[in-house]
Each structure stands twice: as structure tokens, then as C-alpha cells.
């Protein structure tokens, strides 16, 4: 029913590496799952040791498009499968 998504604690610059939950770059905010999916929000659990690919303002929700992820990583694959399984059909 809900996701915890990554929110920028401070301005983030393209090329920075996120330090994950409890670090200096991001904090988590709970969002309804439908909102998280609609935004393409980056789950907090995937916000560690990933590179930022564009500048992000303080307080912004990070999205999948804001970071460079290894799509072959088991956690990333599992999340993508979960998003696909719970996606609301767009008829």
C-alpha cells in the first residue's frame, strides 16, 4: 500500500554517489504506492552506492531517471518485477 522513497537532504550534483539510508544525501518519505509508481520514485532501499545523473534540489523526490542503476542487480530486478505486478492497467 505504501513505499518509502528517497528524498534529497541537500542539493545533489550530477556525478555524486548516494550514500543510502542514514547517510548525508537522502532521507525516506512514505508515499502511497500508487503515487510512488506514478512519479517513478526511487525506493530508499535502492539509494545506496548509485550515481546521480542530474542535479537534484533539496527536498525533491528522486526518481529512477535521476540515478544510474545496474538493471541486472537482483534488488533492482525484484523491484521492477514488483512494480510490473502491481501496476494499475491504463485502459
Low-pLDDT segments: none
| Number of strand elements | 5
**Share of helical residues:** 10-25%
Q: What's the total helix number?
A: 2
The radius of gyration over CA amounts to 13 Å
Cross-sheet strand order for the largest sheet: 2-4-5
Largest sheet descriptor: 3 strands, antiparallel
Mean pLDDT rating:
92
N→C terminal distance:
22 Å
| Shape verdict | globular
What's the quick description here?
This protein has two helices and five strands.
Explain this structure to me?
The chain is an alpha+beta fold and 91 residues long. It is 22% helix and 26% strand. It has helices spanning 33-39, 74-86; strands spanning 2-8, 17-19, 26-32, 48-52, 67-68. The strands form 2 sheets. It has a 3-stranded antiparallel sheet with strand order 2-4-5, with no helix packed on it. The radius of gyration is 13 Å and the shape is globular. The two termini are 22 Å apart. The mean pLDDT is 92.
Quick tags:
91 residues; alpha+beta; three-stranded antiparallel beta sheet; two-stranded antiparallel ribbon; 22% helix; globular
How are the SSEs ordered, and which strands pair?
Blueprint: E1 2-8, E2 17-19, E3 26-32, H1 33-39, E4 48-52, E5 67-68, H2 74-86
Antiparallel strand pairs: 1-3, 2-4, 4-5
Amino acid at each position: 500500500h505504501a513505499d518509502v522513497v528517497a528524498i534529497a537532504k541537500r542539493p545533489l550534483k550530477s556525478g555524486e554517489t548516494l550514500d543510502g539510508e542514514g547517510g548525508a544525501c537522502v532521507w525516506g518519505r512514505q508515499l502511497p504506492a500508487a503515487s510512488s509508481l506514478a512519479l517513478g520514485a526511487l525506493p530508499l532501499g535502492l539509494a545506496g552506492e548509485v550515481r546521480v545523473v542530474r542535479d537534484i534540489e533539496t527536498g525533491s523526490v528522486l526518481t529512477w531517471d535521476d540515478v544510474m542503476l545496474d538493471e541486472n542487480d537482483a534488488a533492482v530486478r525484484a523491484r521492477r518485477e514488483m512494480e510490473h505486478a502491481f501496476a494499475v492497467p491504463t485502459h
